[in-house]
């Protein structure tokens, strides 16, 4: 993190071009500082042997073990037809199990001399199976010689052996030796934490933390180092976010306040239901933000079906009241059309501004997508430029240069994680002054992730379902173990249709891969692996229409259909003309058909926890109870089944998001759009370190309020520059 010359030294100067090239290509390490921040994953105690009993198949492992015996055998092969081929078989043990190592050909000579019974060493290689026994073929190894051997003392000073995240081309001990070479540079690391903060929290200085994480003498050293380095990661990230919030607070914005007898009041008067307590509370937070003289940046988290669209629409109407325009950005055309339909239906004649029969306070609500006809598009662009249209709903087509607004006051982004940073910034740039921003997500986010990933946004949470919404019963259908359960699932779908309802069937794949080379390649890869390819919409729809759902009207919906066809299918389904819609995850967000009560998700184990929760939220949207069946071939004891059982056991999205986060690598959760976080979080775990993140946020806010330019904190400024390289700059550009 330090920006000092010693730590900026390129590795090729210190370690030589060959090693530096492998480190850059395989681990993304380029400078001395990068290597010092590549921390050990775990440590081996010199006297303790690793458990060989728990070795994972097909993974690169590093083990510490003792040679039990070694046998050199000769054999005949095509290369050595006279029985001159040589094979060295070495058995190693650690007390929990035994493992065979094999070396062939000329590669047997060195290990034959060195790997004598009783020798202890580190071994690294890929675990494979031969004759039903686990083995490492041609593993790399490093002998753990007596303390008097100078080389080993240099390489393995200290009582704990660090095991580094390594690759096939760069074993852990080679990394350890490289770290040993650059470790003196750690003394020159400039500390990013203000001295008062560090002392107040009892944290060791950064140079000491780096020495202790790479060369600990005791487990307490590791603990000291990790506590300190977690603070660095949390604090530097929170300072970056605090500076972003501070900068936004300095920008001017037009305050937008609803008028007592305007379009919002007229809309509220006509509502056929009362808003939930949660909707009223969140609306007040949003209206307060819209009335401020700097841009609102708010994240609206809402459980599936909690009425986020209603809250967003009321915010848009408040802005229209105040003479401005509101734009809603949706990730797909299906969703943009769906939002446009539901908003115009909810508003009735209030959406018919300038038309015969429009209400007195009405405005115009226009749709703008890439596939619209030229005439409709021209009219929509004109309505936006003149201010005739108060609300526009669209896809990224809204961002094009041609689109001009009369006075853009609010941008609502639906399903934030599907939008790139540039897209949001381009839309925000269309206001005369920065518009207010409301980001909506139906993926519940644990508080710590919200603080880490969306730390530049204020957060509102809608966790109450509107009255009249029905609970959803979820069940796992183990198709491989119990085929009759799957037959019963299709009977349940028929029963729902006979009772006047409709159903979704969701599949992971479309099934027209023959026309798509990339898809064909993926399918072939799946077939060559042990797993069959994922089930496909087109194939499943045909089988259902001919088999268990014969006689019902079955239609398909997927992302590669023409937008007009997609819209026509959705209209027929919404109108109740189609009984069963077989679809990909295009229905995951925003699709609202209250009469759809059942959903069958095929190959459910191939979807993420949050995605399953999203999909399930498409049923039970009316007064009849919802049913979600998760069909899987995964064996009973597998992690995939445990994940599905977790989804079936709770409707609490926040609980599921925690499970999701615990089961996936942090980087996946923080996502591609937040690429900076993935590479900057090495010891900080967003679920486990909630307290550190919350405290770091407080400290960061205080430091930035006092010194926004960080003039008194050169070390912190250098750490920020290191964090905010080009990729990571994007991570903070969400606001």
Structural topology:
Elements: H1 5-8, H2 11-15, H3 17-27, H4 32-36, E1 42-45, E2 60-75, E3 85-93, E4 98-104, H5 109-114, E5 120-130, E6 133-137, E7 140-143, H6 150-155, E8 160-163, H7 172-182, H8 195-200, H9 206-214, H10 219-250, H11 263-270, H12 277-290, E9 297-302, H13 308-321, E10 325-329, H14 333-347, E11 364-368, H15 374-386, E12 389-394, E13 408-414, H16 421-428, E14 436-441, H17 447-453, E15 458-462, E16 472-478, H18 483-498, E17 502-506, H19 517-528, H20 537-546, E18 554-557, H21 563-574, E19 580-583, E20 596-601, H22 609-616, E21 626-632, H23 639-649, H24 653-663, H25 666-670, H26 675-680, H27 690-706, H28 714-723, H29 726-732
Parallel strand pairs: 4-6, 9-14, 9-15, 10-12, 10-13, 11-12, 13-14, 16-21, 17-19, 17-20, 18-19, 20-21
Antiparallel strand pairs: 1-8, 2-3, 2-5, 3-4, 5-6, 5-7
Helix pairs in contact: 9-10, 10-27, 10-28, 11-13, 12-13, 17-27
Short description:
The relative contact order is 0.10. The longest helix has 32 residues, at 219-250.
